[in-house]
Amino acid sequence: QQPVQSPQAVILREGEDAVINCSSSKALYSVHWYRQKHGEAPVFLMILLKGGEQKGHEKISASFNEKKQQSSLYLTASQLSYSGTYFCGTHDNYGQNFVFGPGTRLSVLP
Amino acid sequence: DGGITQSPKYLFRKEGQNVTLSCEQNLNHDAMYWYRQDPGQGLRLIYYSQIVNDFQKGDIAEGYSVSREKKESFPLTVTSAQKNPTAFYLCASRSSRLAGGPSYNEQFFGPGTRLTVL
Predict the structure, then answer these.
(1) CB-based contact (8 Å) between A8 and chain B?
(2) Using one digit for the tens of pLDDT, what is the confidence trace for A60-79?
């Protein structure tokens, strides 16, 4: 079952912060985050493996709450290069069938 | 340089024809995946393979077929049974090196093939 992402789209000015949420009705064993620029392939950002885990990647970080079956991606002091569509992805409990969320389109304006 | 390649980048097909999309990786990855992406939409899983000579259907396998005769290759055939094949097709691979298997490793994506049915 596909995870749910919110918001569907967000528009920011450079330097502003944003939060993208990913949740599932099924138990989450890991959460992956990817960013895709228009017409290109998705690029890996980070994987979260344990409940409560937080990871960071430059000014992009994420948290994973296993109990609440949700993950959040935090973008701080956004840059123009952050524009794109952000996808979360989750596995079934055998670590095989991988499902992406519908994506959140982020636009950063000067 | 290790990576994953897809060819061709653009493909045009007449209705009723089968067409095969190529996906090759030299990353020595065990798992490979095919996704379909429609304009403004997310990625939907067509087929995946964890090891050579084995593959599983994803959410939208109808009208598609795959083979995995070699570790580095995972071609996708779009058959005439696929009613609406125009889309962006992405291939990905993943290592199983870390403990716990594929779920603990990132996916590497190829550049994609844009298929248009005329």
Answers:
(1) no
(2) 999 888 888 899 999 999 99
Q: Are strands B43-51 and B31-37 parallel, antiparallel or unpaired?
A: antiparallel
CA distance B49 to chain A (A): 9
Q: Does A4 touch chain B (CB under 8 A)?
A: no
Q: What is the phi-psi region of residue A94: left when phi exceeds 0, alpha when psi lies from -120 to 50, beta otherwise?
A: alpha
In this structure, what token pair is assigned to residue B71?
A: 């570790």
The span from the CA of B100 to the CA of B40, in Å, is 33
DSSP, collapsed to helix, strand or coil, labels residue A82 as helix
Query: Which of B102, B104, B108 is facing A49, going by the closest CB pair?
Result: B104
CA–CA gap between residue A10 and residue B27 (Å, rounded) = 35
Judged against a pLDDT cut of 60, whether residue B101 lies above it is answered with no
Bridging pattern class, strands B10-13 and B113-117: parallel
Asked whether the beta carbons of B1 and B106 are under 8 A apart, the reply is: no
pLDDT cut 70: percent of chain B above it: 91
